[in-house]
User: Which sequence fits this backbone?
């Protein structure tokens, strides 16, 4: 009985960890910190129809697809979830996720709240983590500091942030990204704790 | 909305963390390790009717009560849970737990599975953690090494361990105590993650 219990826990498939949060909150930085700290987590490479920038590598940063190819994969049920953002498609390949999970690796997905809730519907043991800034003022400061967006785009992102934060109660964990290192540690604690969770089906 | 969400999380009351596991598994050592590592956790001093040993301090290790006094407190609803073990009573004072929780501190309770399930019934947001040895052979070795029990008592404890482990699926987290330091880290991750959990009632 004991061997069985421990064996099941050690050999079970990896979890899907969904990371959402407003644009500019630092999701990417926190994820990179976690990937560097934890040997059992991986990022799943997603597909997109947007143009590849010079510093992006096919198959590492994204799989770059034509819109036609992307649409045909949607029809084939290729994606766990996909979204249409600013005229471009982004999608998470179901097979890519499954392959990592079958190796016992936890898969990190950085997607929006809508996508997160879709994933939870399809994969009930997915873990939903919401990353928030310590305040809206700080979020605005971060968006301005990265000098990537127009004034209009910044205002739009702040408005979207307020909308997403309204949905926080549908998520499972809240991580305040006040300081990168602490935020990475908190996310890491969530990942470790979820590995230790006794699932009722077992 | 954001201030409200973060404020609620920071100001909410501490959780009750129930630690169960077979005699000899090292629960006490793991708990002491966690208390040393985490500033937000406390142990609640329990009451007992057993005799005080020379190195135990009243109010620190236990509150030592006469059986009459203990029984009268049971009638007054003084205890969150109590148990009758080897002719002695042990009980967790409800007020002591509540006082710590109101200060935002997580309260660690080291009690048996029966007590843990009783607590969960009364405090639905209690967190149930089961600590297991890596194997029964290792548990037997630890029980023999501590030279505290008779042969009969060791066999009885091993038999009880098998009984308790049968009930593991009623618990929420499983920590294998293969090595103290790792077990403390795992338990700490659970405590941190539970602090970040978004509760549906909020």
Assistant:
């Amino acid at each position: 009985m004991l061997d069985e219990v421990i064996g099941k826990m050690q050999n079970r498939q990896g979890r899907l960890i969904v990371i959402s949060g407003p644009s500019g909150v630092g999701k990417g930085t926190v994820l990179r910190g976690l990937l560097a700290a934890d040997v059992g987590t991986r990022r799943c490479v997603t597909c997109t129809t947007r143009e590849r920038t010079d510093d992006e590598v096919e198959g590492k940063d994204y799989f770059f697809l034509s819109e036609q190819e992307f649409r045909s994969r949607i029809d084939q049920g290729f994606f766990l979830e996909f979204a249409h953002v600013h005229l471009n498609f982004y999608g998470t390949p179901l097979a890519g996720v499954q392959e990592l999970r079958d190796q016992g690796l936890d898969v990190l997905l950085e997607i929006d709240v809508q996508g997160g809730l879709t994933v939870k519907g399809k994969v009930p043991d997915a873990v939903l983590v919401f990353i928030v800034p310590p305040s809206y003022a700080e979020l605005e400061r971060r968006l301005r500091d990265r000098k990537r967006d127009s004034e209009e785009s910044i205002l739009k992102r702040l408005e979207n942030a307020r909308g997403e934060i309204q949905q926080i109660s549908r998520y499972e964990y809240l991580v305040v990204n006040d300081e990168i290192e602490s935020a990475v540690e908190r996310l890491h604690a969530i990942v470790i704790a979820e590995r230790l969770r006794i699932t009722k089906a077992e």
Remarks:
- The radius of gyration of chain B is 18 Å.
- The CA atoms of residues 17 and 108 of chain B lie 5 Å apart.
